[in-house]
Amino acid sequence: MQLSENFRIAVSTLGVHKVRSLLTVLGTVIGVMSVVTIVSIIEGMNEYVSERLVAEGSNTFYVDKFGMITDYEEYLEALKREDFTPEDARAVERLSPSVLAAGAVSETQKTVRYRAKSVSGVNVQGVDEKYRFVESGEAVGVESGREISREDVLRRKAICVIGQDVKDKLFTGVDPIGKEIRAGRHRFRIVGVGERKGSLLGMSQDSYVTVPISAFRKAYGTRNPVYLVVKARDQASYDLAQDETRAVLRARRKVPFSEPDDFSIMGAETFMELYRSFTSTAYLVTVGIAAISLIVGGIVIMNIMLVSVTERTREIGIRKAIGARRGEIMVQFLIESLILSGTGGLIGVLLGVAIALFVSGVSPLPAAIRAWAILMGLAVACGVGTFFGIYPAARAAKLDPIVALRYE
After folding, report:
1. What distance lies between CA 145 and its chain's CA centroid?
2. HSE-up (13 A, CA, CB side) for residue 291
3. Strand, coil or helix: 119
């Protein structure tokens, strides 16, 4: 019998029981849909985060006394370490030939008020005059007004630069330059409005107030640790800039030669590695869900095919009586199993793509549809159909035609 004829018979047979066939492929649909959806979202996030890290500057790295701490005991130990100061940033910039610039930053969160209006959870940053240059690679990063200057830092001026979100919420239709706001209990006069940065994974980067780091430490004390933002001269000198920064800071902090660093240097690759470690967990969970769904779907397909063999025992006997060989009977049932699993895989792919695009459209989570994920989903679905269809097909092929013809 021709393969096309086997395919036609299989479609016709499965079409007789449409609801049963649809319910049979449900497990396969869920498994493939889960894989395609999660892979699309995670790949989209990986692409998005990589692009943003590059946009932030691949030549930039951060130095603080904590680093990536995952243990409470490590955190308590890190608290005992010496804090960084703006003078450390100046020393790194002066003594490291591969470093273009270094800035010092300290942060806290406060409610910012102007007259009767207020914005909560604003990131108040104490910065020196080099921070914006290191962060953006530009000498000026303001839309209007001016940036924080060296004089502002030296004289501890109570001035600030605000982000676009703060401007929009507190100064609708009003020029904020020269106005005075309160960040917590302390007052600062606005001298500039920063350029709009947009959001990162749904989190706004424009809800901030930057003040001179000297004024910040005077207003909020020294309990908020200072970290350093360092920019290498170019990508080629990136690793050397980190080594030079490490040597300068170890000398300033009097770390013995035999002792490890009492600070941490983190670059874009550090954050990307940490991010991928989190997303790998999602991959594992997805693989687990998909595996369970596909196994359940395969078992359901096998059971339904066994029921089909029982229902069609007389048909199998007639086909064998008129000359059908074992291989032809086996191929017939394998094709039916493949159609069931392949259809489930195709529906799962379509639903997975649709869900990923929907999530991307209504939330900040990006999505990237990968051809390899679609092909993998279809291949695994067809593989499951083949594996779990072998036993029912073999059982049908082994039926004795005389016994089959007697079956009622």
Report:
1. 36
2. 6
3. strand
pLDDT higher for 289 or 82? 82
Answer whether 0.85 is exceeded by the pTM.
no
Amino acid at 281: T
Residue 242, classified by CB atoms within 10 Å of its CB into exposed (0-12), middle (13-18) or buried (19+), is buried
Task: Give whole-number Cα distances, 393 to 225, 286, 305, 327, in Å.
Answer: 69, 31, 8, 9
Helix ranges (DSSP H) in 58-99: 72-79, 86-95
The residue whose two tokens read 């008020």 is 113
Taking a C-beta distance cutoff of 8 angstroms, is the pair 345, 28 a contact? yes
Residue 116 tokens read as 């009767």
- Token pair recorded at residue 323: 């000359």
Q: How far apart are CA 346 and CA 324, in angstroms?
A: 32
Instruction: Give pLDDT, residue 133.
Output: 73
Give the dihedral of Cα atoms 67, 68, 72, 77; nearest 10 deg. -20
Residue 256 CB neighbour total at 10 angstroms:
7
Give the pLDDT score at 65: 86
DSSP 80: T
* DSSP structure class, residue 195: P
- In tens, the pLDDT along 11-70 reads 666 655 676 777 777 878 888 888 888 888 888 877 777 666 655 556 888 898 887 766
What does pLDDT average to over the chain?
A: 81
In 316-388, beta strands by DSSP E:
none
Per DSSP, the residues of 293-316 read HHHHHHHHHHHHHHHHHHHTHHHH
CA separation for the pair 396, 329 (Å, rounded): 7
**Helix, strand, coil in percent for the chain, rounding step 5:** 60, 20, 25
Q: Amino acid identity, residue 49?
A: V
* C-alpha to C-alpha distance for 380 and 112, rounded to whole angstroms: 55
The CA–CA distances, whole Å, from 356 to 43, 105, 310, 346 equal 11, 38, 41, 15
- pLDDT, one tens digit per residue, over 219-245 is 998 888 899 999 988 888 888 999 999
Q: What is the CA radius of gyration of the chain?
A: 33
What's the farthest any 2 CA atoms get from each other in the chain? 104
Helices (H), 221-267: 238-252
**Quick check: 83 and 313 in contact, CB under 8 A?**
no
pLDDT of residue 139: 43
Quote the CA–CA distance of 371 and 369 in Å, as a whole number.
Answer: 7
Which positions ≥6 away from 371 have C-beta within 8 Å? none
